[in-house]
Amino acid sequence: MCGRLNMIDDLFMRALMQDLSVSNPNEMLFDRFKMPTNEISIVREINGIRQLQTATWWLLQDMGYAGFKPSKYTSFNTRYDKLNQFGSAGYIPFRESRCIVIAKGFGETEKRGNTVEYYDFIAQDSAITLGGLFQEWQHPKTGEHKISCSIITNPPHPDMQAFHSKASPLILPQSTSVRDAWLDPNNHQVDMFEHLLTPALRHNFLVQQIEKPSLFKVIGEAQQLHPYDA
């Protein structure tokens, strides 16, 4: 599953925000290493205006006496096969509160026996739009308002099997019409997104094994990943 995000400040990230008509690009929370429960920037549409908002990367939140905390149930990703399962955490957000997460790349972890390997996937000459969900919360005692989010994951992609065998993130096509439909809060016709719930990378990636995500110490040579699907 998508367990790390690379959201560095580069020309491709800036260009993608411009392509999406984001109204407040200077509020982007840039960082090379974002992990679940961190605050990240999401793109959503409110009254026809695209804007960045800060969200906790963990969809389900518990309301404690003094405020919010991430639920004990893992929810930084939402599996594709749960989106149409009535009663699941992603069922209503998939229909009512979709968002886009802009990233330069993502990170995956693979366990091989007693060894844990870490890989970074960095988009080449581009930035990527990840299909996400968000939820808004209001604390009944403190009045605190909070936004949380998750990233949708698809089945594993064949080209990623050598690095990660469990899942692949939902990367949206580079299509204005798809992105417009995804961000439209009045669009509840999710059948039109069915074709997106299959593995697709849609970009060329540089894949780099690293020793530890927080330090970014590389291991060996990076590999080029050229997916066959568009």
Topology:
Layout: E1 4-7, H1 11-19, E2 31-34, E3 39-46, E4 49-57, E5 61-63, E6 68-70, E7 77-79, H2 91-96, E8 98-103, E9 105-112, E10 115-123, E11 128-138, E12 145-154, E13 168-169, H3 176-183, E14 205-210, E15 218-225
Parallel strand pairs: 4-12, 7-12
Antiparallel strand pairs: 1-2, 1-9, 3-4, 5-6, 8-11, 9-10, 10-14, 11-12, 12-13, 14-15
Percent helix, as a range, is 10-25%
The percentage of residues in β strands lies in 35-45%
* Strand element count: 15
Q: How many angstroms separate the termini? A: 21 Å
Write a concise keyword list for the protein shown above.
3 helices; 10% helix; globular; 230 residues; six-stranded antiparallel sheet; seven-stranded mixed sheet
Protein described:
- The two termini are 21 Å apart.
- The chain is mainly β and 230 residues long.
- Strands 3, 4, 7, 8, 11, 12 and 13 form a seven-stranded mixed beta sheet that branches.
- 10% of the residues lie in helices and 41% in strands.
- The protein is globular.
Quick take:
With 230 residues, the protein is mostly beta strands. The protein has helices spanning 11-19, 91-96, 176-183, and strands at 4-7, 31-34, 39-46, 49-57, 61-63, 68-70, 77-79, 98-103, 105-112, 115-123, 128-138, 145-154, 168-169, 205-210, 218-225. The strands form three sheets. Strands 3, 4, 7, 8, 11, 12 and 13 form a seven-stranded mixed β-sheet that branches.
